[in-house]
Design a protein that fits this description.
Length: about 400
């Protein structure tokens, strides 16, 4: 978390005090899907600044554009906005000229769209009520899951969001089939004493709202910057020469990772210079079949029909040349002038240059120099005693 409140003091255990909201504190620097306003400190080049629209952020990934009237709002202002019913409380996440660019990106027409109003900057009572709803969300989600299980519905409550005035609660859920939650809504209304709204989301949207750490060690892309979820197919993994292992290709949402599409265009452009991987090469030694492709080195690997265990590395230019000869009815004498031979692995021995011990000495089994041999200490001790001068003992016989 990057907000200044996380570094203000420490708890008794020595950890940063923070806000304990795990990236949803809405302070403007550690919220999800935040947009950097790179036009904020630039001089006005068109003679005016568009300040009619602002972007207001609510919990997690929910954002909305609003119309302001001479309020001069800036990023970080907490505002009370129009909702149905009552009012909601959110944080201004973007203002100025960049709002129009974001509206254009999301296909929002500033002339025809129905924008809701901003009532006022949030007062202390508004913020207190809003914070009360945020504090209740975790307990409400736990209780909502228990009620859904008691009724026997095949669904999962993934998140709960209270409206700013505590008059309505939105329950986000995921389900594979259609769910009849009429009884569930009645139980929720009796239990939580609020107006209930059920909203179904997909597996990717659930991962974006919940958040987490991916296999790359960074926060999930869908939680930080990714806003459009494009279809990811197994062909994207095939084009990138990846093994079709579901455990490695699936993300935390259970679907194929979105990052499989990030470099797909570069691979497709590189593969345009490669012949078809199903092509066969006719040589005087027999037919050669393509086995794999190294896109970065620009080579293909072939095996002969009579020697399927011997992989031969052939440059792409040579493959095109042989295919051209085969079309003319000729057979290539050989695939390449020099067949690929695996380079021997050079094992570097440890050199004790500065007189230090080998760092891998603890990895060696006993009896190979890593441990002291049994009894070596006793031998040194016996040799030491043997070299000492022997005096006359008091009970020695004269």
């Amino acid at each position: 978390m990057g907000c200044s409140g996380c570094s203000n003091g420490k708890t008794e255990s020595g950890l940063p005090r923070g806000c304990k909201n795990n990236g949803a504190c809405q302070t403007g620097s550690c919220d999800k899907l935040s947009v950097f306003n790179y036009l904020a400190n630039m001089e006005d080049t068109v003679g005016y600044t568009v300040s009619e629209f602002v972007e207001v952020r609510f919990k997690n990934t929910r954002k909305q554009f609003f119309k302001q009237e001479n309020m001069r709002l800036v990023e970080g202002d907490v505002v009370a906005v129009e909702a149905s019913p009552g009012h909601d409380v959110g944080t201004v996440s973007l203002s100025g000229d960049l709002v129009l660019l974001q509206m254009r990106k999301r296909n929002v027409d500033s002339a025809t769209a129905d924008f809701k109003k901003i009532y006022r900057k949030a007062t202390k009572s508004d913020i207190d009520m809003w914070q009360e709803g945020v504090d209740l969300e975790k307990a409400t989600k736990t209780r909502a899951r228990i009620i859904a299980r008691e009724i026997g519905l095949n669904m999962k409550i993934s998140d709960v969001e209270y409206q700013g005035d505590m008059s309505k609660a939105v329950f986000y859920y995921t389900a594979e089939d259609r769910v009849d939650f009429r009884e569930l809504i009645r139980r929720y209304a009796e239990e939580f004493k609020v107006r209930v709204e059920m909203k179904q989301i997909g597996a990717r949207q659930e991962a974006a709202r919940v958040g987490g750490i991916g296999t790359c060690g960074r926060e999930l892309c869908c939680s930080t910057w990714l806003t459009d979820f494009r279809t990811v197919s197994t062909s994207a993994a095939r084009y990138q020469q990846l093994s079709l292992n579901p455990q490695k290709l699936a993300g935390q949402c259970g679907k194929l990772k979105c990052c499989l599409n990030f470099e797909l265009d570069s691979y497709l452009d590189a593969l345009k210079d490669f012949p078809n991987q199903k092509s066969k090469l006719e040589t005087e030694r027999g037919t050669a079949f393509a086995q794999k492709v190294d896109i970065f080195r620009g080579v293909m690997w072939f095996t002969l029909r009579d020697d399927p265990s011997n992989f031969i590395e052939v440059p792409v230019e040579r493959v095109k040349e042989i295919l051209k000869m085969n079309k003319e009815g000729k057979k290539a004498p050989i695939l390449v002038e020099k067949e690929y031979v695996a380079a021997p692995v050079v094992k570097h021995d440890f050199e004790n240059v500065v007189g230090q011990d080998d760092l891998t000495r603890f990895d060696r089994p006993k009896g190979q120099g890593g441990q002291k041999k049994k009894g070596s200490g006793n031998k040194r001790r016996n040799n030491r005693n043997r070299n000492k001068p022997q005096g006359n003992k008091p009970n020695d016989a004269k």
